[in-house]
Amino acid sequence: MNAIALNQATLAQLPANIQRPAYARDTLTPSIVHIGVGGFYRAHQAVYLDELLALPGHAEWGYCGVGLLPHDAAMRDAMQSQDCLYTVVERSAQGDTARVIGCIGEYLHAPADPRAVLEKLAAPNTRIVSLTITEGGYYVNQGTGEFDASHPDIVYELSKPQAPRCSFGYLLAALAMRRARGLAPFTVMSCDNLQNNGDVTRTMLLAFARLVDGELAGWIEAGCAFPNSMVDRITPATTDEHRALVRDTFGIIDAWPVVCEPFRQWVIEDAFPHGRPAWELVGAQMTHDVLPYEKMKLRLLNASHQALCYIGMLLGYTYAHEAMADAGIRQLVRRMMDDEVTPLLEEVEGIDLASYKDTLIERFSNPAVRDQLARIGTEGSARIPKFVLPAVREALAQGGAIELLAFTVACWFRYLEGHDDNGLDMPLNDPHGVRLRELALHGGANATALLSLRELFGELSDTPAFAGAVSLSLEGLYNLGARRALDQAVA
């Protein structure tokens, strides 16, 4: 098969089995600006809009993508070279299918042209700004839940509000421009894995705005909507193996394809005063209360991901499906979901929790996806406080069990030391990685140093039941090794 370089001019030449945009891309209005054009966004929100645009009458909606980080230049180059087209491959035990997504009309790189990004955000036809900026991108002090005004990004933004660099800096500067021009504020839509992600975005952005301009903060508070949402699709990081798959199996040369599982879910609070795409026509669920769905997904899927990834890496596994083939890890995940998390969840309309958990086990175990444990374990300092600790707090308040939740935290502590049980290096990708590793190396089997991080653990640092359970598990991981400690945890 002679592979074809993907761009607008070559779309018609692609193999007949490749689904491609069924709409005129040049007629789309870039009314949604998305900040953080990573694999998950391109496999999730962009796919929903692509399917909607295939239906007649929705050309008023299109995406403009924005990258804020210097290393996003690589994504810019890939996207621009392909006219912002890219391939999504869905992988399952039944086989692989590919489609080309075309709903992104433009990609802007903020470090290279900050003015272009600000003007796009402030443009009259920009009605929604959506975000996938990772769980750590909202400047929340995890210990207090308050805005972290001491974060280096925020310290910089406060010193140079006219030259933004981070997401909040760009949002605030663009909203100030809209206010000065007599335009309504855009809707800010978080698509990150945070409970009440819209409410968190609103609280943190307003706290930042009050430090910059009190009147602007009042204007945002009065007129800017922040809908909550729940998003779900397992999407491993793109590798050269994925590029080769797209080239050799589907005949497409794509600089940055994205690979994902077939499953996807999107629950959205219907709060868009300036209009929105009709996402419900393509499978999204519009509701007035996202919280039960968010809580279910974060506590079951995301917390379980944390449970399997660190112990999995300690035991020498690379991929999620390998970890889930380990009987001990599989038992850890299932028992933590059943015994410690499910009792904390309320009924969710339209969801059978037993079936949902069965589906999660099946998804985690999908060998075709090859989801990297290192990806799942990225930014543990943001993910552990958001996915695991809320369940710990609720369980302690209700007198429930926390042993496996605490074991998950202990596995993270042990992982921070940097070597698995065979002495091999484990990757650490965390904005606080240097400090965390120093504390992990200093403390060793003693959890006290890491537990003292009140900005992560808050009052749990001083809670004997939690601190004791984590300490006991960490001692086992160091003294017995990961395998025996796991066996003991699930015994």
Q: Could you characterize what this model shows?
A:
- The protein contains 21 helices and 13 strands.
- With 491 residues, the protein is α/β, with parallel strands linked by helices.
- The chain folds into two domains: 4-287, Rossmann fold; 291-490, N-(1-d-carboxylethyl)-l-norvaline Dehydrogenase, domain 2.
- A five-stranded parallel beta sheet has the order 6-3-2-7-8, sandwiched between helices. Strands 5-4-11 form a three-stranded mixed beta sheet, sandwiched between helices.
- It is globular, with a radius of gyration of 23 Å.
Topology:
Elements: E1 4-5, E2 32-35, H1 39-43, H2 45-53, E3 63-67, H3 73-81, E4 86-92, E5 95-101, E6 104-109, H4 114-122, E7 128-131, H5 152-159, H6 167-180, E8 187-190, H7 197-212, H8 214-223, E9 229-232, H9 240-250, E10 252-253, E11 258-260, E12 265-269, E13 285-287, H10 291-314, H11 320-324, H12 327-341, H13 353-364, H14 373-376, H15 380-398, H16 403-416, H17 433-443, H18 448-451, H19 454-457, H20 464-479, H21 482-490
Parallel strand pairs: 1-10, 2-3, 2-7, 3-6, 4-11, 7-8, 12-13
Antiparallel strand pairs: 4-5, 9-12
Helix pairs in contact: 4-6, 7-8, 10-12, 10-15, 10-16, 12-21, 15-16, 16-20, 20-21
EC number: 1.1.1.67
Protein name: Mannitol 2-dehydrogenase
Domain Mannitol dehydrogenase C-terminal: 289-476
